[in-house]
């Protein structure tokens, strides 16, 4: 690891820790990395429509709620020794209310942001994109439909680590769960 990369990593992690509170950003203890929880800014009077096939709670219909917030997107990352000069951070992105296809689209955009910023630190740009532009980027408008009832498992997105880790999305998906979805491996 070059001293420039090490210094850039330390400076970036220190800056993130000073910008975000402990609920939003945590630096990892054992590795160069951490976890961020991104809370999206929802438009006023944002509605979700919950539908599903569970006879117990939804009876094959649905209901609509006005909400003020959604569960956060969670970005876990690890910085390789040659970041930011050569390699991007390794990362996983999860969000209980997004489909695997939507998460894959966000991951691909984070990859593109790395390419645009290659050689520079990128975590703050990633976090700002996820916080401010996720809804527009995924064309999510009110009312946003959440389908409940599918217990589907998909692979997490990893840039360079553990591609066999599975993530259970807790039954919530934002698109038709019957169709085959293309997932960013």
From TrEMBL:
The gene is RNF14. Signal peptide: none annotated. This is Ring finger protein 14. It holds the Pfam family RWD. Residues 11-137 form the RWD domain. It comes from the Eukaryota. Residues 157-185 are annotated as: Disordered. It comes from Homo sapiens. GO terms for cellular component: cytosol; nucleoplasm. SUPFAM superfamilies: UBC-like.
């Amino acid at each position: 690891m070059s001293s420039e990369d090490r210094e850039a990593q330390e400076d970036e992690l220190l800056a993130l820790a000073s910008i975000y509170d402990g609920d939003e950003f945590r630096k990892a203890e054992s590795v160069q990395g951490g976890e961020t929880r991104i809370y999206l800014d929802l438009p006023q009077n944002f509605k979700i429509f919950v539908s599903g096939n569970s006879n117990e709670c939804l009876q094959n219909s649905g209901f609509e709620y006005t909400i003020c917030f959604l569960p956060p997107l969670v970005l876990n990352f690890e910085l390789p020794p040659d970041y930011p000069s050569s390699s991007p951070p390794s990362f996983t992105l999860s969000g209980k209310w997004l489909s695997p296809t939507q998460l894959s689209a966000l991951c691909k955009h984070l990859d593109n942001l790395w390419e645009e910023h290659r050689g520079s630190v990128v975590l703050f740009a990633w976090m700002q994109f996820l916080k401010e532009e996720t809804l527009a980027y995924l064309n999510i408008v009110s009312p946003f439909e959440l389908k409940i009832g599918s217990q589907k498992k998909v692979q997490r997105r990893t840039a360079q680590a553990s591609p066999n880790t599975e993530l259970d999305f807790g039954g919530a998906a934002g698109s038709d769960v019957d169709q085959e979805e293309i997932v960013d491996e």
